Amino acid sequence: MLEALVCPLTQSRLVYDASRQELVSEPARLAFPIRDGIPIMLVDEARKLED
């Protein structure tokens, strides 16, 4: 199912980070959390990636 999800901001592919339980969008520089097995695809809930 994760293959079907894209970044809500850029529509780009997401990369699963198992150690942090996040879906990462490199183009948007955001990491979307996965809580209780559910991806939270809200930009306001995403963590900004540092350079």
| Gyration radius over CA | 10 Å
Shape: globular
Number of DSSP strands?
Answer: 5
Order of helices and strands: EEEEE
Structural class: mainly beta
Q: What is the CATH topology descriptor? A: N-terminal domain of TfIIb
CATH class: Mainly Beta
Task: Give the rounded overall mean pLDDT.
Answer: 95
Q: How many domains in all? A: 1
What profile does the largest beta sheet have? 5 strands, antiparallel
Helix content: under 10%
Task: List unreliable stretches of 5+ residues.
Answer: none
Architecture, according to CATH? Single Sheet
**Percentage of residues in strands:** 25-35%
Amino-to-carboxy terminus distance = 29 Å
Helical stretch tally: 0
Any key phrases for this structure?
51 residues; mainly beta; N-terminal domain of TfIIb; globular
Topology:
Elements: E1 15-17, E2 22-25, E3 30-35, E4 38-39, E5 47-48
Antiparallel strand pairs: 1-2, 2-3, 3-4, 3-5
